[in-house]
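Bug #77: duplicate submission created two jobs. Keeping one. Sequence:
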Amino acid sequence: MDERLLKREERAVFALRGLYRLYGYLPFKMSKFEEYELYARNLDFLPSERVITFTDVNGRLMALKPDVTLSIIKKGEDLPGVRQRLCYDESVYRPSGSTGAFREITQTGLECIGDLDGYDIGEVVSLAQRSLALVSEDYVLTINHLGLLTALLDETGAAGALRRSLAVCTAGKNLHDLRRLAAEAGLDSAAVETLCGCAGVYAPLETALERLAPLCRSAAAQTALGELRELCALLPDDLRRDRLVFDFSLVSDMRYYNGVVFRGYLPGVAESVLTGGQYDQLMRRMGRRSRGIGFALYLDRLEELDREEQEWDVDVLLLCDEKTPPARAAAAARRRTEQGLRVSVQHAVPAKLRFREILDLRGEERP
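Kept job's structure:
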């Protein structure tokens, strides 16, 4: 098959599947349905609390799956020294952020679960970067370490709702409200200024590590910084270092996530096309002892890139009618498809079809 005829997301699926298999990630397939109880226990982990449900013939309340990670965790087991490496191409069903209507979202991704160490974290982050590079050379993968944010929040002495509010201000780079809330609560001003200093750090990872070093004084902050240094050292030389950017404002829900979190962006796409991170906290909530890290690439968002790149739906609009010899039309279409051109054979011009040129065979008489 000529890959030029495939949509970007279709090409991505084939390329990514091969990439993940190279690193030992085995295909994971799941049913479209899962017992609703799994999601009910973890509603605040999901992007939306709204889930499509139905009752099956056995009286069980089922749901169209809104997430893949939860199912993978549920079906796995903790084995000492073992890493479970799984990859998937799945559809999930969630409300649209713009309309609120449910839609099918196609995604491909991977999960690495088990007795993880620094190598595993580096492998998954590098695979996230390679995944973006397979889609477009013009990408950015932003990264943060929630252990660093946790350490700096600990230093301020904030707790409960105030702590969560400071995290929200950090994510929004809202330093004015961050300082105001801290002052009203009488928090340690030096610790608050350190947090504010880190909140503005957005730079290639190696550069960011230099800027963060003098700000990270506690043992916990130094540990998080050390893990980022280890990650940086593990990245393969063929990956562009300037495309991995530290962003302290990247904050995921710390009830589920810890350690490294990351998001991938492509020009021309308003939302992130890749999200991922370490979710040891989620593993604990689901009764698992091992650790986990993974990411998902949202293939449906790549359609925005296809719309920009493809000015035409087809290259040739071939018009024929009842008088056109079928063999004549078939030969004309075949000659052009053999050249790699996209051909649409029609009896009239479709109203919304975008075409580069017309080949009009109408009115030709049968021999």
